[in-house]
Write a structure and sequence with these properties.
Distance between the termini: 91 Å
Order of helices and strands: HHHHEHHHEHHHH
Strand content: under 5%
Largest sheet: 2 strands, antiparallel
Shape: globular
Strand order of the largest sheet: 1-2
Oligomer: single chain
Radius of gyration: 33 Å
Low-confidence stretches: 249-266, 294-300
Structural class: mainly alpha
Helix content: 55-70%
Length: about 300
């Protein structure tokens, strides 16, 4: 028997190295936001998202996926897509002298809960949908808001007149709620040229790469909001269709049975007990008596033999 070929240690460490690269850019984003360089902070979060999208595919391509890698990926995502985007908004938009830090806590806590639930329910399995908004999508939408707020599409249109310093708090609360909700969100298709789904996944990844290079500030926030709305709309449609299917099939009601007889009165019950018959005979026995078949307590006289 041939010994199984084990992957080299360098190949085993390659996916974990890509995951730690995600952690590096997540920490760097927090540091840049603390220094007031919010544009670079958003860029670092998005680069971390690209590293997060690659590490799992590297593990599958090299056949080095382990339980350790799954846990490491979740711990890193909690920082890169939970804490880092919330801290960017805290330093850039929210009030630092009040209680706005509670929004940072709420967003990060929901990201951690969502990742823990993912490890228990969906990690390591082939999936077409996520249960709840994925933390990289939530963190990317929140972080890319700052980029979008610096564009002419924001400042020179009616969108810029909205009280975004107030709406941002509701946006953070909405994203946090969707992460821990049961709203289904489509998973990113695997890259492949053999299936239509794989081709769509590859084209989508290339579109994101082109958007990051040429139109990063105008591209990511609207696309992210569209993805958030897509999940909510899908959940609403599924709920309406499920409710409609239930309405097509009314609840079953118990139809009256013609063979049912009313319960015996107390006097009749006493007579049956005295005769040795059991009270409330079964439906089959009542039918047999009614049809003249007799039962175990049938007292009908025997027939006289005929000549």
């Amino acid at each position: 028997m041939q010994r199984p070929r084990l992957p080299r240690p360098s190949m085993v460490m390659l996916p974990s190295g890509v995951t730690l690269l995600n952690l590096f850019f997540g920490i760097f984003a927090i540091v840049a936001a603390a220094r007031g360089d919010f544009g670079r902070a958003v860029l670092y979060v998005l680069i971390g998202a690209i590293a997060d999208a690659i590490d799992g595919r590297v593990a599958r391509a090299t056949r080095t996926g382990t339980r350790f890698g799954e846990e490491l990926d979740s711990l890193v995502d909690a920082i890169s897509f939970g804490l880092a985007p919330a801290m960017i908004m805290y330093f850039a938009v929210l009030h630092k002298d009040g209680w706005d830090w509670l929004f940072v806590f709420g967003f990060t806590a929901c990201a951690v809960i969502r990742l823990a639930r993912f490890n228990v329910e969906q990690a390591g399995r082939a999936k077409t949908h996520f249960r709840g908004l994925p933390s990289p999508a939530a963190g990317g939408v929140l972080a890319s808001y700052y980029w979008f707020s610096q564009t002419s599409l924001y400042t020179e249109t009616a969108i810029g007149g909205l009280p975004w310093h107030i709406l941002l708090r509701y946006l953070m609360a909405l994203l946090a709620f969707l992460m821990v909700s049961d709203v289904p969100y489509p998973a990113w298709p695997t890259f492949s040229l053999r299936t239509l789904r794989g081709v769509i996944g590859l084209l989508g990844f290339l579109a994101l790469a082109v958007g990051l290079v040429f139109l990063p500030r105008e591209f990511f926030f609207p696309v992210g909001i569209g993805y958030v709305i897509l999940g909510v709309a899908t959940a609403v449609m599924n709920g309406l269709l499920d409710r409609g299917s239930r309405a097509d099939f009314p609840q079953a009601t118990e139809a009256p049975d013609d063979d049912d007889e009313p319960l015996a009165e107390p006097a009749e019950l006493a007579d049956e007990l005295a005769a040795g018959d059991e009270p409330y005979p079964s439906r089959r026995r009542r039918r047999r008596r009614r049809r003249g078949r007799g039962g175990p307590h049938d007292q009908s006289p025997p027939q006289e033999p005929t000549a």
